Amino acid sequence: MRRIWNLLSKSKQLALFSRPASKFRLTALRSYCDEPYRQNRPGPLVQYKSLVDQGKLQHDPYQESVASELESLLARLEQYEKDMEEYHVNLANWEKQRENERRRLLMEEVELHQKDEDWWKRLNNKLTERWESRKRPGNMEPGVGKWVSYLKREKKLDSLVGRRPTAPPAPKGLYIYGNVGSGKTMLMDMFYSATKGIVKHRRRYHFHEAMLRINEHMHKIWKSQIDEKPLQSTVAGWIMSLPFDMKAKEWLAAEERYKHEIQLNNILLAVADKFFLDGEENEKGASILCFDEIQTVDVFAIVALSGILSRLLSSGTIIVATSNRAPNDLNEAGMQKEIFQKLLSKLENHCEKVLIGSEIDYRRFIAQKSENLVHFFWPIEKEAINEFEKKWHDVTSRLGGRIVSNTISVMFGRTLEVPESFDGVARFTFEYLCGRPLGAADYIAVAENFHTVFISDIPVMSMRIRDKARRFITLIDELYNHHCSLCCLASSSIDELFQGTEEGTLFDLESFQFETETDGGKLRRNVLAEGRVSSTGAPSSITSILSGQEELFAFHRAVSRLIEMQTPLYLDGVSNFHPYFQRQHKQLQQL
């Protein structure tokens, strides 16, 4: 009982921090998603109209049109889920039958080979060479011979069992694009919320997190491929129980391994097949991917997205994506044109393009209508410093936690030291988070672990600290995506933060062009061959390949999000939508 009270009281204490008394009471901006754990949520159009009627959103014809499209897509999901459940049953039966037939064919081959004494002598010589040279079973026969043998077997299986069942036609997804603050993410999240209880496999990723997850899956698959194990330990149980001698079993094991190597030959397809599996391998049905801020900032992003999204779309996944750019404008740098065209073709065939044409930044509009809470203190002078420290003291006193240093886990087996933290609240300096070689993986770890983040000593961004500015933008993206409460002490107001200093503006076209010409060429040539991926989940020279317009989008987006993060509309949702409180809710359900 005490545990339940502790969980509930923490949520109420944070609510007090996020929502002091105000005449203008509003629910969280993302409470357009309604109660996060409630079943049978209204669709996106119903949610949108309700918020407009309540005066919490200003009516926008573009937004209503997109909400209507998403509502129409939602209406088709229930039947599609049933169709996909039936498809997966048929697919599982087909896979089982095909595997049984494949094993039968292999056993027939072994029986025929056993009658051929010369074949066994040749095999024995190759086995001896293998053990002496410590080569993998795939080298037991010439590669071409194995490949031909594999293809013949697959062709015979097609005639015996038939080809893979065809997935039912999927409803077209949506590719929503438009200006910063036009409501793209809001509408996508309304749709994503409404799919709960309708579709089993649902994922929502921001670009940074999606690329990191892709890298993580690739790393695991690569690692499993290069781990050398004795042949005896890799022989499948079904082979060991067969009435053949050890030489025949070793031949069968080599054929099994070759099959797996063929299947993993295209690592991106293997990654795509694991994209929705997170303890849900036995649950069959439709799948939906909501992809926020889709972009192609470098060669790796183009190749990875093309391979994975193409695979997902071909297997019936519905994609709802947002972007600042129309699909045709995603690759203005002209990188990997042939691969990009394949991705573009898939998106156009499987997604309707919808423009939110409004020029209004609705985050600013909401901020102007509401009585903002002061969580952004500037400039860094005595009064602002005292207010910032008072806010920190108020939160620490209210939650009653003991401030300690902490270590949190980051992707790829790394960790990050947190100098000051307690009960889901953490404090950092700008230099600690953005002045060191940290990236999206680190910021995601911070955002997932802490519902409230304090950052002090934020400078005005200029060309001199451009790399720090980019890290800060990525940090804001992840704190916003995870619905964190953010309290800042900065040198200037939000609007002036990215305007530059006397040293120069943050965005300088001539300097940017020179940087791209000198560094971008090497990145384009080597990223695929070398496969180098930094800890941030993107190629190490990613910054040199961003287009100027893309960088401006990022600056405008950061300003827009910082403004929204000061409003009651945003802050009221922290205790509902942040992972810290969602984990607590699951704990309560399990009691």
Q: Helices, strands, pairings?
A:
Layout (H helix, E strand, L loop, with lengths): L1 H17 L25 H10 L7 H54 L2 H17 L9 H19 L11 E6 L5 H11 L6 E6 H20 L4 H4 L2 H4 L5 H18 L3 H8 L12 E6 L6 H16 L3 E6 L13 H14 E6 L5 H8 L6 E2 L4 H18 L4 E7 L3 E9 L2 E5 H5 L5 H10 L2 E7 L7 H16 L3 E6 L18 H22 L17 H17 L3 H4 L2 H4 L1 H12 L1
Parallel strand pairs: 1-4, 1-5, 2-3, 3-4, 6-11, 9-10, 10-11
Antiparallel strand pairs: 7-8, 8-9
Helix pairs in contact: 1-15, 2-3, 3-5, 3-6, 7-11, 11-12, 12-13, 14-20, 17-18, 18-20
What does this protein look like?
The structure is a single chain. With 591 residues, the chain is of the alpha/beta class. It folds into 2 domains: 39-115 and 148-360, Rossmann fold (3-Layer(aba) Sandwich), CATH 3.40.50.300; 362-501 and 542-590, 3-Layer(aba) Sandwich (Rossmann fold). It has 23 helices and 11 strands. It has helices at 2-18, 44-53, 61-114, 117-133, 143-161, 184-194, 207-226, 231-234, 237-240, 246-263, 267-274, 299-314, 337-350, 362-369, 382-399, 430-434, 440-449, 466-481, 509-530, 548-564, 568-571, 574-577, 579-590; strands at residues 173-178, 201-206, 287-292, 318-323, 351-356, 376-377, 404-410, 414-422, 425-429, 452-458, 485-490. The strands form 2 sheets. The chain has a 6-stranded mixed sheet with strand order 6-11-10-9-8-7, sandwiched between helices. Strands 2-3-4-1-5 form a 5-stranded parallel sheet. Strand 7 (404-410) and strand 8 (414-422) form a beta hairpin. Mean pLDDT is 76; it is low at 1-38, 130-143, 230-235 and 508-547. Pfam families: AFG1_ATPase. Keywords: ATP-binding, Coiled coil, Nucleotide-binding.
